[in-house]
């Protein structure tokens, strides 16, 4: 068996004439994979989260409530983030409502990355985390595109269970999915 110095080393006899190096191709694929990998936020991301949420909340028809810097600082570990290299491209917030329910809120996508399924990646990540805890998820929205996506994922609209939460966002619908 041949020993390589690194996991991306060129195999013996690999010629790069007329084509990219294998190392470059592997590194590029790894960057692309990591570019859309959601993760839980940390304290170093406060400023970028604040800027993204404010920018998106200022867009006409976004329906997103702005968050203060203090709110983000206090709740930073509840946020999900996705980066493209150094650029924050999407986020969401997991808000524990009670012992069996978590709300996915503050779903926002950088304007330059919209229509690239970033909100679905945030939703996938949130669903996995909530499913691991055997809790249900709710999403409060009036966005018709998101509503269609939720319905395709078998979310159901509820009107009675979360009345207090519904009253906090008049005109919006509450959708839920149970994982237990």
Question: Which features characterize this protein?
Answer:
180 residues, globular, 35% helix, seven-stranded mixed beta sheet, alpha+beta
Chain-wise SSE layout:
Blueprint: H1 22-35, E1 39-40, H2 46-57, H3 69-75, E2 79-84, E3 87-98, E4 101-109, H4 118-132, E5 136-141, H5 144-152, E6 156-158, H6 163-168, E7 173-178
Parallel strand pairs: 4-5
Antiparallel strand pairs: 1-2, 2-3, 3-4, 5-7, 6-7
Quick summary:
This protein is of the alpha+beta class. The chain is built from six helices and seven strands. The model has no long low-confidence stretch (mean pLDDT 84).
- SS strand fraction: 15-25%
The succession of helices and strands, N to C, reads HEHHEEEHEHEHE
Distance between the termini: 48 Å
Oligomer: single chain
**Largest β-sheet summary:** 7 strands, mixed
Shape annotation: globular
Give the mean pLDDT: 84
Helix- and strand-based class?
alpha+beta
Radius of gyration: 20 Å
Count of individual helical segments: 6
The spatial strand order of the largest sheet comes to: 1-2-3-4-5-7-6
Number of strands: 7
Helix content: 25-40%
| Parts with pLDDT < 50 across at least 5 consecutive residues | none
């Amino acid at each position: 068996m041949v020993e390589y110095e690194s996991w991306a080393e060129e195999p013996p006899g690999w010629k790069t004439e007329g084509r990219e190096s294998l190392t470059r191709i592997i590194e590029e694929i790894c960057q692309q994979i990591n570019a859309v990998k959601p993760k839980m936020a940390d304290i170093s991301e406060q400023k970028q989260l604040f800027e993204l949420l404010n920018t998106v909340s200022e867009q006409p028809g976004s329906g997103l409530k702005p968050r203060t810097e203090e709110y983000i600082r206090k709740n930073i570990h509840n946020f999900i983030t996705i980066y493209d290299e150094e650029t924050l491209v999407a986020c969401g917030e997991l808000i524990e409502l009670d012992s069996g329910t978590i709300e996915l809120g503050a779903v926002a996508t950088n304007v330059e990355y919209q229509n690239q399924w970033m909100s679905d990646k945030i939703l996938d990540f949130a669903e996995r985390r909530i499913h691991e805890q055997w809790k249900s998820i709710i999403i409060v929205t009036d966005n018709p595109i998101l509503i269609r996506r939720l319905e395709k994922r078998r979310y159901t609209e509820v009107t009675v269970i979360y009345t207090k939460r519904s009253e906090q966002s008049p005109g919006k619908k509450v959708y839920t999915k149970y994982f237990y």
